[in-house]
Write a structure and sequence with these properties.
four-stranded mixed beta sheet, 131 residues, five-stranded mixed beta sheet, alpha+beta
Length: 131
């Protein structure tokens, strides 16, 4: 059996990312462990995930100019992440009040209610609710 365990999001600041994902997005902090880079420099291994989910996000601090340039552009400016919720209205309200920037108004599609937002790094996500 195979499963997708983690997806990396490169961020400018780990603590800001933790606060955003565990605050208005409602994720849980699964791990925040000191670690080292391949060449021995200190870093942190930080994993967050939606409550009840098995797939998580590895929040990785940008290391060097190439990674810093990728912050917020990991998917070339298009929506690259999809967060499905049971109660769209409550999630949208919580996220909006928590400072999450929505770049589109909610709309109804055949697959459900959707609105595009940006995470703390600037990556675009679909917030998806029931049809």
């Amino acid at each position: 059996m195979s499963r997708l365990e983690l997806v990396t999001i490169v961020v400018a600041d780990i603590d800001d990312a933790i606060a955003s994902f565990t605050g208005p997005l409602g994720f849980e902090l699964v791990e925040d462990t000191p670690s080292t880079t391949a060449d021995g420099r200190p870093k942190r291994w930080v994993v967050v995930r939606p409550r009840g989910a098995s797939t998580g996000l590895l929040l990785a601090a940008a290391d060097g100019p190439d990674q810093a340039a990728a912050v917020g552009r990991q998917c070339g400016g298009r929506v690259g992440f999809f967060l499905r919720v049971d109660d769209f209205e409550a999630a949208h309200r919580r996220m909006s009040q928590g400072g999450i920037r929505f770049v589109s108004e909610p709309r109804t599609e055949p697959y459900g209610t959707v609105a595009v937002f940006e995470d703390v790094a600037g990556n675009r996500w679909d917030l998806l609710g029931p049809a």
